[in-house]
Every structure is written in structure tokens, then in C-alpha cells.
Amino acid sequence: MDARLMIMGGAAGPELLVRFVQLAGGAAARIVVIATASETPEAAGAWYVDRFTALGAGTACALPLATRALAAAPSAETVLRSATGVFFTGGDQERITTVLGGTATDTLLQELVASGALVLAGTSAGAAMMSATMIVGGDGPGVTADAVRTGPGLEFLPGVLIDQHFAERGRLNRLLSAVARYPHELGLGIDEDTAILTDGDRFEVVGSGAVTVVDAGTAAEIRVPATGPITLTGACVHVLPAGCTFHLTGRRPVAGVPAAERERAA
Amino acid sequence: MDARLMIMGGAAGPELLVRFVQLAGGAAARIVVIATASETPEAAGAWYVDRFTALGAGTACALPLATRALAAAPSAETVLRSATGVFFTGGDQERITTVLGGTATDTLLQELVASGALVLAGTSAGAAMMSATMIVGGDGPGVTADAVRTGPGLEFLPGVLIDQHFAERGRLNRLLSAVARYPHELGLGIDEDTAILTDGDRFEVVGSGAVTVVDAGTAAEIRVPATGPITLTGACVHVLPAGCTFHLTGRRPVAGVPAAERERAA
Fold this sequence. Notes:
Chain A contains nine helices and 16 strands. Chain A is an alpha/beta fold.
């Protein structure tokens, strides 16, 4: 699998972090950690640098991008052009989009991901910002227009809307609310210690939990009043644990033997 | 609507309780409260008797059924044969099924509901026990075989599996887990202060929240390992607020203008 993106639902365990190190080149990996989302970016950056080094990365360093000026500076470009893997920590996804959005760093990362020069990974807030439409907040119960707030993400993975800590925080209602409003976007709910690895317009699930895909494209009826409950009939749900593969543009799981079993059999 | 069952997701407000009183005959209603599920059945019974009286019921009384002997006694039959509405309180649904299951009270209630002699209502545990397959417990995150424990309910509404406090407790994962194991059963997740009113094999949604129907009958692939995440692809979800009608044997929402709007227009 030629993964370009590794999108983690938070609380990633060693299995997922090692997988990222390997995708970035293992002993030859040059990993850059961007902790802009974190309230304590220095500590968060240092923590992941230590982890990736301990897990066998060739080199790992933190790239402090606390301001738009830093994200526009040539020094950031130098660091990123030498990277084989870039990792976005958790925190507040709006900090990532407001600090990085539209800067030279944003543009460069899009280019480097598209060309296959590096693997881009993110966890929690670092996962949310990968979406075309990003869930910003909202944890109210029920499926209602005000149960979820959204905004534009950095669009590394177009056509999706990502939610994280998914099973752990019982967020299916807010994902249903979001896709009812924006049925073009596929809703991806990623559990903790779980990730998707993208390869073109497919993704494979890895980790200990599952990815829940909510597709309101099949819905027969959608009504979203300004207040009060949403009506949504005929939406489609897929619960996909590790090894399952999903075709994003086809909006369907890839049938047959999971990739993990194919690999074991090969 | 000729309602036989009124199944409430817990925390029922005055609108729902009045609706039950009206369905049972309003000023002519003779309501019997069964608080077997409650840890404090005397207090729970008295509380609902007061509420139903205050909301205009002709008469309301509690029927104490703490033991199987009481549920088999002729005195219970006398009380129930004179009722126009029976209400089961919340608490522990397994107390209802172990104390009432198979007793003369159980049999009599089935007959009285089937003949239309009374309206049977229940909230929370009193809703869960209406199912063919009843969710007994389990609140773990994720969609896994052990995320949910089930057992037989009293089958007032066959072919369904009911979960309650649905949005408030983020229970879609456990309902998905249950229907993945038992795809014959339609999963009904009822929010607080929300109910379904059944009429034959249809139900209408009433109250302030929504009913989420999860149908694994459409699933293309279901794998339920003994431990670890379930795979479930192609399940169908409907989120139905007040006024929506659902056809149970057809496993589909009834399209068109919601019943509440029809009633207002008429």
C-alpha cells in the first residue's frame, strides 16, 4: 500500500506510531512534528519526537509553527522539504487552520503529499483538519443542526468529514447531524488507537478499533430545520475494523478478504 | 391513530404523559402503574399515580408486583381487567422480565393489548422490555460483541430491539452491535422525552427528540468475532423526529407529509 495520509482518531498506541515510522522510511525516516494544535506545543512536540526516535525513526524534530509568520518563513520550507514524514499532534483543529491555512507551509505540504515525497499523519485535531469540511465542535445529544459546528479543513482528503475519538465519545449523532447538512461529504468516524491509511481514493483501516462510515448520499429524505431534530431516512452505515478497505469515490467498502489477511496469506 | 403501545425513551415530559392519559380515555381513563422495574417501587408508583391524576386521568392506581406470586395472583387480574391504560416505570428491565415473565399477568397483558382493551405504555426499562430481544446492559465504546448484552423481552412489539436514553447516552454503537448480531431485529433507539405510538405494524414518533432506526437487514457483510470489533457494511439508518411514521414489516419510513402536519392541515 502506497499510503500518503495516515489519519488517526486520537490516543494512538505504539502499533500505529511504529506503522507511521515505517511508512516514513524506518531507519531512514526524517520525521517532522507540528504541534500547532496543542495548548503546550513545546511539550507535545518533544513528546512525539522522543516517541518516534524510540520507535526507530532515523531522525525526528519538532517544527514550531505558532504564528502565520513562522508558517510563511523560508526556514519552514527547508525543514519540510527534507522530511519523509510529517505528523500533526492533537489539540484544537481551528488553531491549525487559522495559523497554517493558505500559508506557504500549507501549499508546500499539499505539494509534497501529492507528489508522494512524504507521508502526512495526524491524530485527533491533526486528523480533523485533513477533512474538506472539518468538525469544529458540538457535543450536544441528538441529531440537530446545532449539534455540530463545522468549518473548512485543509482538504488533504477531499470529500470527507472526519470525526475522532469516535466510539469513545459516542459521536455518531454529531456525525449524522453533519452529513445530513452536507450529504456530499462522507462522514468518517475514527475510533481511538485506530487510523485510516489512504492510497489514492481508497483507504484501509488499521489499529485496535473501527472506522464508522456514514453516507447520507443514499438518503431518501433529509430535512434540517434551524432548530429541533433533523429528519434523515435511508442513510448508509459501515462499521469497518482493521483490514477493511473502503473506496471513497465509489462510496462503498471493497468486498472480499481484508488486506491484512491477504498479506498474511501472501 | 389506534395506538396499542406507547414506548418512551425515558425522562418523559408532560406532553408525552398527557398523550398517554388521553389515549387511555382522558377523564374516563383508568390507569394502572406497574413499578416492578424500580428499586423504590412504592415511591415510583406513587409519583406516576400523582402525575396521571394531575394530568386529568379519571383514576390512577399502582399495582404492586414485587414477586412472581403477586404477578400470578387473581387480584392482579381484577385490577388489570378494569384498566384502560397500563404504565411501566423505569428501573431495571430484567426485574420486569424475571418477575412477570410467563405469569398470569404477562399472559393477560398480552391478551388485553391484542384485543385493544387497553393502551400499554412504558418508559426506559418499561420500554426496553417491550422488545422481542431486549438490551440488558453494556455501555462499552465501540461496535463489538461484548459492547452489549441482550436477553428475551416480553415481546409486546415483535421484531424489534429497543434502546432508550438514546442520544443522551450516545448509544448508537451498542445498538449497531446488537443488530449486527441479530439482523432480523430492527434496532429502535428512542431519545428521552420521545416515544413511539404503534398502530398495527406502523409506529409514529412523538415528543421532543427522535427515534433512530438501525436496520442491519440491508447489510452486505456482517462478521461478529468473539472479541474485537464487528464488521458491518451496508446497514441502513433512519433518524425520525416527531411526526414521522415507520412501517415495521416493510422496514421503511412511510414517505410523505408527517402525520402531525396532516393533522394540523385537516
